[in-house]
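Quick one from the shared queue. A colleague (R.T.) flagged Cytosolic Fe-S cluster assembly factor CFD1 as missing a structural entry in our internal table.

Convert sequence to structure tokens.
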Amino acid sequence: MPLENISHIVLVLSGKGGVGKSSITTQLALALSLQGKSVGVLDIDLTGPSIPRFFGIEQSRVKQAPGGWIPVEVHAEQTLPATQHADGAANGTAPQQSYGTRVGALSCMSLGFILPNRGDAVIWRGPKKTAMVRQFLTDVLWPELDFLLVDTPPGTSDEHISLLETLLKTTAATAQLAGAVVVTTPQAIAISDVKKELNFCTKTGVRVLGVVENMAGFVCPNCSECCNVFSKGGGEVMAKDFNVPFLGSVPIDPAFVMLVEEGVRPTYPKGTVVGGKALVEREESVESKDGLLVDKYRECSLAPVFGEFVARLAGDVEARVAA
């Protein structure tokens, strides 16, 4: 079974649409890769497969091989060139030079790679969705992976049931299923829907690795302020109510949007601080579309935020396996 090559499977869930599950999945994958982990991303949002666009590989196609499909490679394992980081910037000292970063390989599988045209509508009933999800889990020839992240559609529908039924059929897959990251936004209307997803995890026996509160704040591209547009704190309160870990809050960063949409390296005004950390100022003249996505992501304000998330997740998962 192709899942035998995977050490840990993490589901990215939410009971609410539009909370940014695909964005969170993308950044979790990039952050894990930057920590040297080999990562796969499986997109089972069949009616809205956006993972190919997030990784800038929309024009790619999966290849057939004896026994199944070969996922699309985002980047291979390699060492990125050294870059600057702002460890001393908050204290007024010069940014320090870091050593080259060894990144793990990253690959993806999505229905978006199979559809003839990107804009084609997927009009499928439940049984066909169920069959597609099962085929993704049994016919994708993943290389050896430390983590497989599964980007899911909103709710608790056919895709979720088929996903868990297939994963829980074998003892090996059950041991590999590390748990779920649940995504919400701060507003009460989103929290009320996401609570249903937490109840779903409880009823199905899926361990919640943590709650991420997305869109909690806005990183202004014209000043150094990060203000709370949609309030903040609802996700943390919900996590406490359900006695599950709260990973943290993620602001909206237009520079990350530009990175995904146009491939432009992130830039920030001098003095920008996100999550208590100062960012390195980059002149507009050195903006570039060259380089790998994972390389450019290192300069995003959200990279250190997700770096902390995945360090906690990986530590928790590996400690439970060791125990």
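DSSP finds ten helices and 17 strands in the chain.
Residues 178 and 234 are 25 Å apart (CA to CA).
Added to the table.
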